[in-house]
């Protein structure tokens, strides 16, 4: 049975047929738009449905603390407030979005994704180190570093 399904969905070289890639891409895009619409109308700061487990258990901010509120503010055009909630997310989001869009387009049109293999490992290790250092520094209770903690601008 699975061989028939695989023959129906995949090309002879193992790539998924373009019709199914198009349907899958449309489904993923629809889910992303639905999630964005939900976040646009439901503020994470007014409800308790989006909590950070690390902050709830330890009282320390993780590198992702404030990301939900930052995304909510970005959807409403409040870029400075989003930056105050999670500056690293606001700085990395355009790069992550461009990377995902390029990978998705390459996969949609060719059936293969080779961009990930072209990224040098030192870049990935550097990004990981920046995220870890950011997670530590945003918990330091001294002047320049307190600006990294999630803060509401009045």
Termini gap: 61 Å
DSSP E strands, number: 0
What class, by secondary structure content?
A: mainly alpha
What fraction of the residues are assigned to beta strands by DSSP? Answer: under 5%
Question: Averaged pLDDT, please?
Answer: 90
Radius of gyration: 20 Å
Low-confidence stretches: none
Instruction: Report the principal-axis shape.
Output: elongated
What is the subunit organization of this protein? single chain
Order of SSEs, N→C?
HHHHHHHHH
What composes the largest sheet? none
Fraction of residues in helix: 55-70%
Please indicate the count of domains: 2
Counted by DSSP, the helix tally is 9
Protein name: DUF2752 domain-containing protein
Organism: Dorea formicigenerans ATCC 27755
InterPro entries: DUF2752
Keywords: Membrane, Transmembrane, Transmembrane helix
What does this structure look like?
The protein has 154 residues and is mostly helical. It has two domains: 1-36; 42-146, no CATH class. It contains nine helices and no strands. It is elongated, with a radius of gyration of 20 Å. The protein starts with a helix and ends in an 8-residue tail after the last helix. The relative contact order is 0.10. Keywords: Membrane, Transmembrane, Transmembrane helix. It comes from Dorea formicigenerans ATCC 27755. This is DUF2752 domain-containing protein. The chain crosses the membrane at residues 20-40, 88-109, 121-137.
What's this entry about, in short?
The protein is mostly helical. It contains 9 helices and no strands. It folds into 2 domains: 1-36; 42-146, no CATH class.
């Amino acid at each position: 049975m699975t061989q028939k399904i695989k023959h129906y969905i995949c090309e002879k070289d193992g790539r998924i047929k373009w019709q199914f890639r198009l349907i899958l891409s449309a489904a993923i895009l629809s889910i992303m738009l639905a999630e964005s619409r939900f976040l646009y109308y439901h503020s994470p700061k007014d409800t308790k449905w989006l909590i950070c487990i690390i902050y709830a258990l330890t009282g320390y901010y993780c590198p992702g603390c404030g990301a939900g509120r930052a995304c909510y503010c970005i959807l409403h055009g409040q870029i400075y407030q989003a930056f105050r909630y999670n500056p690293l997310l606001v700085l990395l989001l355009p790069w992550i979005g461009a990377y995902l869009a390029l990978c998705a387009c390459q996969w949609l049109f060719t059936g293969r994704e080779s961009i990930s293999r072209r990224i040098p490992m030192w870049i990935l290790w550097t990004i990981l180190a920046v995220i870890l250092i950011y997670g530590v520094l945003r918990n330091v209770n001294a002047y320049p570093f307190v600006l990294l903690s999630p803060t509401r601008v009045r």
